[in-house]
Design a protein that fits this description.
422 residues; alpha+beta; PmbA/TldD fold; six-stranded mixed sheet
Length: 422
């Protein structure tokens, strides 16, 4: 959220304003960026393990050309930071929910990694304005395992919010239930082209990789991408893709160049409609920044980055999407993705999936690598359900060595052609 500085940060505000007044007018990169950031990483397990690491960094960058190192990283009191990030009570709830979910299970084990951060940033421009934004994020990766020998496991990932649903108890139960389903012998997914149905939220990673990265301004300033080069082919369904950095994990209301952020429609009813721009790329392309200029820290340069990228819900019944699929794969979790936005190709590691035979789930399959071709994918999306979900596969996007917390979303969808590799 944007907030006006108070007496406590008046000194920071004045220092930034003074530094910004010396910048070159008309330079789209000209700004002063200052951040104070606290990061917490907590690991818990049913074995009693508890590890907590907390760091704080502060620093400034001027015009994106050089950085001013303010302090070395500090190691802080974990309890105090947990209270500040509002996750102190969450530890107790995780332990209690995990213990309850273990009752009646065969050799159960669970672990949870909680990652939280709070970042306050100030940005000053040559015109003399200083704006401030506060970003907060907290996510949990929950792993459940059953069985003493050849134990099988499942993963639940989610962003913690004040109105988070379902409850932690439900997430533990879901993870253990899936782990027990995966006790059955794994099948090998046949190599080659197949249809793929994506569970709610999961296809958001596909949209992030193949659509979002192909519409980042600095990428387009260097070369045409698969979307811009020939335009989008006609899709099986009218698809709309949006990026709104004001929602989701690590949301921001102004970017790291001081530009107010808002919703950007990237694809509207199957037609390319918008780009993700910071100030330099907007200037190069003769456009206006969309408020997507972000840096991993004050030590890094600004890039156009995605915030919360999602495929808008359709009208299909999710269960019917599965029932109408004669043969294919039902994808529950993607662990990683990599794309070449120029040619429109992407690869993903599928870590949890089931075979589909005659419209029904036919048992879990081994992990595999999946390739998706952008133009081919776009024309073969023929089912889009109404069950839009966010952040079922949570992580960071890394560009040019810079990690950034992002969010993704999608309903249940069916892509008619993906390629399975072992």
């Amino acid at each position: 959220m944007i907030s006006e500085p108070n007496d406590l940060d008046a000194g920071v505000r004045n220092a930034i304003a003074n530094a910004a007044s010396t910048l070159t007018a008309g330079d789209p990169r000209a700004h002063v960026f200052y951040e104070e950031r606290t990061d917490l990483r907590m690991t818990l397990a049913s074995s009693g393990r508890r590890d907590v690491v907390v760091t704080r960094t502060r620093g400034a960058a001027v015009s994106g050309r050089h950085s001013i190192h303010i302090t070395d990283p500090e190691f802080l009191d974990p309890g105090a930071v947990a209270r500040t990030l509002s996750v102190e009570d969450l530890e107790t709830v995780i332990v209690r929910s995990g213990a309850a979910a273990c009752v009646g299970r065969r050799h159960p084990f669970w672990s949870a990694v909680l990652v939280g951060f709070e970042q306050a940033i100030w940005v000053g421009t040559h015109e003399g304005g200083v704006v401030r934004d506060i970003r907060r994020g907290c996510r949990v990766e929950l792993r459940a395992r059953v069985g003493a020998e050849a134990a099988t496991g499942a993963v639940e990932e989610f962003v913690v919010s004040t109105n988070d649903a379902p409850s932690l108890a439900d997430r533990f139960s879901s993870a253990f239930d899936r782990a027990e389903e995966r006790i059955a012998p794994f099948q090998a997914m046949p190599r080659g082209p197949t249809a793929a149905v994506f569970a709610p939220g999961v296809a958001g990673i596909v949209v992030h990789e193949l659509v979002g990265h192909a519409l980042e301004g600095d990428v387009l300033a260097r070369r045409a991408t698969w979307i811009q080069r020939a335009g989008l082919p006609s899709a099986g369904r009218p698809i709309t893709v949006v990026d709104d950095p004001r929602r989701g994990r690590g949301a921001w209301t102004i970017d790291d160049e001081g530009t107010r952020a808002g919703e950007t429609v990237l694809i509207e009813d199957g037609v390319s409609a918008g780009l993700l721009l910071d100030r330099p790329s907007a200037t190069t392309l003769g456009m206006v920044s969309t408020g997507h200029g972000r840096r991993s820290s004050y030590l890094d340069s600004v890039r156009p980055r995605m915030g919360c990228t999602f495929l808008v819900a359709g009208s299909d019944d999710p269960e019917d999407v599965l029932r109408s699929t004669r043969s294919g794969v039902f994808i529950r979790r993607l662990a990683a993705g990599h794309t070449d936005p120029g040619v429109g190709s992407a690869s993903f590691i599928v870590t949890d999936a089931d075979r589909i035979i005659d419209g029904r789930l036919a048992g879990p399959v081994e992990s595999f690598v999946m390739d998706i071709n952008g133009p081919q994918m776009w024309t073969s999306i023929d089912r889009v359900a109404h069950d839009l979900a966010f952040d079922t596969c949570v992580g960071s996007c890394v560009r040019d060595g810079q990690p950034l917390a992002v969010s993704v979303g999608a309903p249940t969808i069916r892509i008619g052609v993906v390629t399975v590799h072992s």
